[in-house]
Amino acid sequence: MVTEVEGETLVYIDRLLIHESSHHSFSMLRDNELKPYRVEQVFGFADHYMPTKTTAGGVPGVGDDKIRGMLELMEKNTAEFGVRNFGFHHPDQGILHVVPPEQGISQPGIVLCGVDSHTSTHGAFGSISFGVSASEAGHIMATQCLWQQRPLTLRINVDGQLPFGVYAKDIILGVIAKFGVGIGVGHAIEFAGSCIEGMIMEQRMTVCNMTIEAAGRMGMIAPDDTTYEYVNGRPYAPKGALWDEAQEYWQSLPSDEDA
C-alpha cells in the first residue's frame, strides 16, 4: 500500500547509512524513547572524522579532542541502539560510499538513504539512492519510512568509448560543462548509452556520485551483468536460491529503450 498526501509519498527505505555526524538522529530516538524500527537495515560508518595520518592507539590515541569525541560518540550511540557499525576498530572500516558496495549492501532495486549528499553514488547499482539530513535519518530509524516528493526524471545517453586519458569523472564534468550546474534540479537522472554500459562499477559509481554537482536529487544506472558479477559473492549479497530470485527481479528493473 502506498500512502500519498498533498504530493508527497510515504516511501519505505531498505537501507540507511549513517556516520559520526548522525548523533542528532540518535538524540531524536533517545528524546522520544524510541528504538530503531528495523535495526538490521541501518549501517554505521566511521569515515568523516577518521584520522588519515595514523590509527595507532585506536580512538583514545586520536589527538584532537573534538574529533576523538565524535568517534567515541558514534561508538557509544551504535552500541546503545544495536546498530551495526563499521567503526574505527572494524576490519572493514572505510568510506560510507565505498564499504556498502564492497560488502554487497548496495544492491539493485532498493531505496537507500545516507546522511551525505553523495549517497547518489549507490545509484550505480540500479537503486534509488539519495542523501538525507540527520533529522530525516532519525525519522527513518524510528519508522523505516520517509515522506518524499516524486522527482522529475531525466535520461542522459552517453555513447562511444572513452579515449586515452579521459575518465569517468570527465564524463560527468563534461555533462555539467555542456548543460550547466542546474541541469539536474528536482530530477532523478538516469545515465545510459554504450559508454556507460562499458564502464566497470567503480566508474559508474563516480558518475552517479557527481550527479549532486549537477544539482540532481539522485543518479542511477541500469543494472546489468557487470552489476551482478560485482555484487555476487559479497558478504551481504543474497546467497543460493535467494540470489537466483534476486537476479530475476533485478533483470526487470532497466528502463524501456525509449524512456
In summary, what is this structure?
32% of the residues lie in helices and 18% in strands. The protein has nine helices and eleven strands. α5 (168-179) links the parallel β9 (152-157) and β10.
Write the layout of secondary structure elements.
Blueprint: E1 4-5, E2 8-12, E3 15-19, H1 23-31, E4 42-45, H2 65-81, E5 84-86, H3 99-103, E6 111-114, E7 128-131, H4 134-143, E8 145-149, E9 152-157, H5 168-179, E10 187-192, H6 194-197, H7 201-209, E11 218-220, H8 225-231, H9 241-250
Parallel strand pairs: 3-4, 3-6, 4-5, 6-7, 9-10, 10-11
Antiparallel strand pairs: 1-2, 2-8
Helix pairs in contact: 1-4, 5-7
CATH topology of the largest domain: Aconitase, domain 3
On the 0 to 100 scale, the average pLDDT is: 94
Q: What is the 3D shape?
A: globular
Structural class, judged by helices and strands?
alpha/beta
Q: How are strands sequenced across the largest beta sheet?
A: 5-4-3-6-7
- Gyration radius, rounded: 19 Å
Largest sheet: 5 strands, parallel
Give the N-terminus to C-terminus distance in angstroms: 26 Å
| Overall structural domain count | 2
Q: Which second-level CATH architecture of the largest domain applies?
A: 2-Layer Sandwich
The DSSP helix count reads 9
Strand composition percent: 15-25%
Uncertain stretches:
none
- Give the CATH superfamily of the largest domain: Aconitase, domain 3
Could you name the CATH class of the largest domain? Alpha Beta
- Strand/helix succession: EEEHEHEHEEHEEHEHHEHH
Secondary structure tally: strands: 11
Residue share in helix = 25-40%
